[in-house]
Amino acid sequence: MATPVSVKQIWLGKSLAVTMPSIIIGYSIAVLSYLVMAIGFVMPETKSFIFPSLLAILSALIIVPMLVFFIVCIVTYIQLIITNPRVASFVFTGIFILLLFGLNILGALGISVSYLPLIYLAITAICVIANYLLSFHLTKEKILLSSKM
Questions:
Q1: Which end of the chain is more exposed for a tag (fewer CB within 10 A), N or C?
Q2: Hey, how many other C-beta atoms are within 10 angstroms of the C-beta on 75?
Q3: Alpha carbon distances (Å) from 115 to 24, 55, 58, 94, 118
Q4: Closest CA to 133 of 93, 68, 82, 73
């Protein structure tokens, strides 16, 4: 670990390297899908283009990418300190399933879709706090002792 950057900078750099391409690909697919659905199916029936609400756009452009970044930070932290990197994949899958089923349960309980941005923001805040707490425990020794060689 002879490098001029700190361990936290490596952690954030790896997290950004994973998050940025996925966000760009996600945006591209979302815009393309929306345009295909709107132009191909909605416009022939309604004769007008339906724009998403400002809250939906803000959620898609800001809140959800932040949530993805902070979840990736947690998974990257686990990859750095655990000897078996597959464990981090299981953690990511667990978080994804928890979010998926949690949101489905909230929908079944009658929670309106308009509350989703607030729910995403709350989950993002929890992830920010978790990352803040984890940042104190990331040391060169932990990374070296969990060497994957």
A1: C
A2: 22
A3: 25, 10, 13, 23, 5
A4: 73
